[in-house]
TrEMBL record:
Organism listed in the record: Enterococcus faecalis ERV63
Superkingdom field: Bacteria
Protein name per Swiss-Prot or TrEMBL: Uncharacterized protein
Length: 48
């Protein structure tokens, strides 16, 4: 029973890590897009 529980929690932690990795990847992409948008707006402000 204990060994089963250990493998279960290990499996869950692997799932969580994968989920976290996905979240971080999405966050990075989102940050890059936001940064590019901000840069465009900033450049437009500079031109005026």
């Amino acid at each position: 029973m204990h060994a089963f529980f250990d493998s279960e929690s290990c499996y869950i932690s692997i799932l969580m890590r994968k989920k976290l990795g996905t979240i971080i990847a999405i966050n990075k992409v989102y940050n890059v897009i936001t940064f590019k948008e901000m840069k465009k707006k900033w450049q437009k402000k500079q031109l005026c």
